[in-house]
Amino acid sequence: MRSYQKQQFSRYSAPVVQPDNNILAKNFAYFTPWLFVFTLIWIAGYAYIFPDPIGLAASHWPLIIVGLLGAFIGNTTAIGGGIVFIPVLMFAYKVDPVSALKLAFVTQAVGMTSGASGWLRRGEVPLQLLKWTVPALIIGTMISTFLIHPQPMLVKGLFGPIAFLTGLLTLITLDRKGGRMELPVNAHIPIVLVSFIGGMITGWVAIGEGEIIAAFCMLAYGLNANRAIGLGVVLLSLNSLLLALVHALYFGGVPWDMAVFTMLGVLWGGRLGPFLAQWISPRTTKKVFAFIALLDGFMITLQASYVMFFR
Length: 311
Fold this sequence. Notes:
By secondary structure, this protein is an all-alpha fold. Helix content is 76%, strand content 0%.
């Protein structure tokens, strides 16, 4: 009887181990030749494409810092840089919500991919889960992109609550270390559903997929925090690449004069998350990021409510 129960447990459960990041995580260097190569390509392309590169840089250079910060947040918590890009563009640069959303997609495509490469190099992404999560993510994204197309009030109305939710999830999972290195077999169907919902949400507000997946894996199944975040970053990277291609090549309307600066920032900021995670505890950093997400959620919700009920 005990032998049978042991076989059943091993079939439906993932092993519980205490991870040692110094052993499991591969040494990850921040600087790579590719960073400098892509930066040189950016400089050449920027000087060639824009007629007044100096004047444009004089007015938009702060967006490089915005991109750096957004990528750092996105790749440390899997929330996504949109938590920074969309509010900054809407409030500081007076960009309409849909254009801000499009900029977030193309910027995250660079920043999250840069960060995802770091998590993959560290060996902290449960790759076997991609076959369950990626198809559901794509289906959810296509529904929110083509069937229920993002509109200004939809973006503003959803961004606030989703940002607030991601902030709460970050605080809830703050002290969750997790002992599992893999998810059990019976988690596959639930994670497909969560990935589908996350794909829909990201198609509307540019954030959601990464943090929702990461929080679900940690809270529901005790997955190791770094592996959960690594999975979330990779999924949001794939989601952002898909949405960037759709909006850049099919819908259009990307504010490239701004996106070019945020893309340079995220190119360098994307690798900061996995790089710094090798030595420092992310607890304090996550608390700051959660506060930013909660503040963003409150401000956007307040503005959307004012527009909806008093105008």
